Amino acid sequence: MTAALPPAKLHLNLNALHSGFVPSAWRLPDSDPRAFVDVHHYVRLAQIAEAGKFDAIFLADNAAIADQINFRPITALEPTVLLACVAMATRHIGLVATASTSYNEPYNIARRFATLDHVSGGRAGWNVVTTADAGSARNFGRAAPPDHAQRYARADEFTHVVKALWDSWEDDAFLGDRQSGSFVDTARLQPIAHHGPCFDVQGPLNLPRPPQGHPVLFQAGGSNDGRELAARHAEAVFSASQTLEESREYRLALNQRAEALGRGRGAIKVLPGLTTIIGATEAQARQRRDALIDLIPWDYSLNRLAGTLGVTADRLSLDAPLPDGLALPANGNHTFFRATIALAQRQNLTVRALIRELAGGGGHRVIVGTPEQIADDIEHWFRNGAADGFNLMPDVLPDGVQDFVDGVVPILQRRGLFRTDYEGSTLREHMGLARPAGRAHARAAA
Predict the structure, then answer these.
(1) Which of 60, 149, 192, 430 has its CA 20 to 30 A from that of 422?
(2) Is the CB of residue 315 less than 8 Å from the CB of residue 325?
(3) pLDDT given for residue 117 in this prediction
């Protein structure tokens, strides 16, 4: 079997992790410790990424304090509200927000992302996730999170309902005809009348169909249930792969699964997470990485790694390999667990060396080098069918994304791998995705 041919141009998203991917980024002299709650910080990041012709800016989300807040900034601002502000300060860049299917209702999410799509002129995307941590469960009045299979069954039905609500208005239902006095053709909007195991939703939505038809659907999850959810619904997937071969196999298998469900070949764009640490020379880039890691307390890194692995920190010894017998957490992040274990085993790393290779983070691949070296790596993965693009997580923000835009993007453009300007106005157009047909088309086909 061979991987599907990559598209003509790769896709680049900025994953705006407050001060940067490396946990100590906020401690640098030029960083602002309050950036995590400063809308102007995120606006600036989006504007830099837009100047670099990125497809989108992406915001993760948590429904609880999910990190060690005594040391690291957290994801705090609600992403759709924040991206509505970003929309007013940008013109082209896509706006992708995470919203959990575990602790929301389909109607609210359908309305929220339809609003963001209208506000931005068709630039919204929804990252569909489930939520497994106990803190979030307690914040929503539950003693514990639902088990893995229950969360994904709910997510599948949830996403189906949201798409149906977006389609509950036909594209031409709104009239606004002053002469006749007809405001909306009510024959062209219908209840969805959904009755399922998890949800009863009547509909229709209370605003017209989004400009994109559907905001672009993203998903992140490497478990079997996560892959099935992606194969059914996702148009792009944020993945975590440490090797080209692993990512190529994942991309091929995911698209084969989607094709078996009746979707077209290559229906899903695969965007592995990629952290970049850039220097004028490789030695300078490594010095930058080491300086950042030296600002991270080892207790923080041990606790974070232990959380990824689903164990307590006392099972990890800095100068020993990972312990034997680590098992996939029943209710944890399967993607990061697998990626971290694979990296440690492949390079026979001690815990201390593993933390250094992960730049103090967890699961995602880290490249340390010059702009040319980073461009070479991106091109190698892209041309060999391992990725349709990347979800970039620079080490420090905004400096890291500015370094990427100034140093790496021009190289990719000269090689014909990345756009030199936007060719459309919507996120779907940036990503080469068709606009979903609405209810009128389905009725005519029947």
Answers:
(1) 60
(2) no
(3) 98
Q: Residue 312: how many CA atoms within 13 Å on its side-chain side?
A: 1
Q: Where do the H-state alpha helices sit in 261-370? A: 282-294, 298-309, 334-347, 351-357
Residue (of 151, 211, 152) closest to 428 by Cα position: 211
Distance CA 329, CA 334 (A): 7
Burial code (b: 16+ CB inside 10 Å, e: under 16) for 59-98 equals bbbbbbebbbeebbbebebebbebbbebbeebebbbbbbb
Which token pair is 340?
Answer: 């971290």
Q: Which two tokens stand for residue 172?
A: 């031409």
> Read out DSSP for 90-112?
-SS-EEEEEEESSSS-HHHHHHH
pLDDT score recorded for residue 46: 98
pLDDT digits (tens, 9 = 90+) for 51-93: 999 999 999 999 999 778 989 898 999 999 999 999 999 999 9
Q: Encoding tokens for residue 175?
A: 């009239």
Query: By the 8 A CB rule, do 306 and 312 touch?
Result: yes
- Scan for tokens 């010095």, then name that residue: 287
Q: Residue 154: phi, psi to the nearest 5?
A: -65, -40
Which amino acid, residue 58? F
